[in-house]
Amino acid sequence: MSIRILIVLAAAPMTFIEVSTAASPDEASAPRKLLITPAVELRPALKYQLLPKFIDRRPGNAAPRYAKAMIGRPANSEFDTKMAAWLELSPAEFAKPEILKEIKAAQFGAIIDELRSAANTEHCDWDLPLREQMVFSIRLPEVQEMRRMGNYVALHARVLLVEGEFDESAATLAAGYAMARHIAQGPTLINALVGYAIAARMDKVVLDWSQTPAAPSLFWAATFLPKPIVDLRPGLEGEMYSLLLSFPSLRLSAKSDAQWKADADQLLRDFYGVHGQLTADGEPAGWIKVFSNAAVSANVVMRRDAMREFLVVCGRSRQSVVAMDDSQLFLEYSVLKFEDLRDDMFRWTTLPYPEARAGIEAAEQRLKASKDPNSPDHEIVPFAALLLPAVAQVSKMSARHERRADVLRIVEGLRVYAGRHDGKLPKTLKELELPISEVDAVTGSPLDYKLRDNTAIITLPSERNDSGNSTLIYEIDVARPKSP
């Protein structure tokens, strides 16, 4: 399965991550109810950590260890289907004896041992053949398998939690978050997407933890996690240079006129070959043949002056630009226009999403305009339009996960507050007297927290809820101790 196909598959099932457009944010949203249990802060504060502890980690590459776990997984699609359903059950439904009995009967403990061993490894190199084959045709079977392995870990952590094995449950959660970071070390945004999906699975178990009687507080464990949990940079850098890795002839250097023409011809042959537009003999097919032999030349003639001006703006000397033949002008313009459109979008990705949103949206409009022959950003060959990933969605997804991480810490903070105040919840987040963020990482506005009677209400716009609306509302109550 290739990278571009996986983009769709990696994002589609992530219901805890994806934004829904099915309903307006103003429509009534069914709240997600949490019945949290009071807790006390742990001493020492970091007795539990949600990544493998330094003293337990070891040098080496985790990828072969993950592969061993994948190979050892029983090919049981029925169990995988049930596993996905079990992970969506409420804590009370999940804790039913018949459910736990069926899960234990699967006997996947050996896989968990392999996965925890891999998660305790310092780094993870997936060794993709980026320089040996076309980047867009690289197969990534390990990415989807890691998503499945993440489900195994989340399921095991949930079972341990129900059984009151808090130390082991926390250690298993730590392995899951480490897996999210490990898969994201691959140089594609697909890796990052699946990393976030795995982290979202662990987040749900942490919410279960907050509703489990006698479960210790995870406030400082959650606070001690890296932020963001997934590093987007490896994937972003891989996507930035995927064009040049796939089409080495695009690397600009001193060449003869004949070589510029040969490289231009080869580029068109390679590019449209990726999109299945060659005959069985490897020749351009149908309209592509007309396009490659005639339309490019016609576009260069019509746009020659504008292309030259663009190269001058990008730092080429006017004298050198005027001296270029059409093949060189075509290649240099194509590369620099792609890089200009790409960088206009990617430059925003390290900023907080509320600061970056307007810039990313403007860059996306330029990208759409690049398909218009009348636009100054028109690409003769649509490299950027076809190959650049949906950076806006990736950036928003990262912000939503950052906000969910903030909500997890708030929920754990509410447990601590309830433990100190006889089950009462605070009127404002400031009353928690804990280091939590009061700013919504998606909107940049104050986080919407209210107290109604003794129910805390947290409203998250642009977050998909279980009923498909685009606003997620948490209603948080405190469980009362049962009478003896």
How would you portray this structure in words?
With 484 residues, this protein is α/β, with parallel strands linked by helices. The protein has 2 domains: 3-232 and 392-478, no CATH class; 240-348, no CATH class. Helices cover 54% and strands 7% of the residues. It contains 19 helices and 6 strands. Helix 6 (109-119) packs across helix 7 (141-162) and helix 7 (141-162) runs antiparallel to helix 8. The chain is elongated and about 85 Å long.
Mean pLDDT: 85
Helix content: 40-55%
Number of strands: 6
Task: Report strand order across the widest sheet.
Answer: 1-6-5-4
Per DSSP, the total helix count is: 19
Poorly predicted parts: 1-27, 274-279, 283-291
Order of helices and strands: HEEHHHHHEHHHHHHHHHHHHHEEE
Taken from the alpha-carbon principal axes, the silhouette is elongated
Cα-atom radius of gyration: 26 Å
The total tally of domains equals 2
What is the subunit arrangement here?
single chain
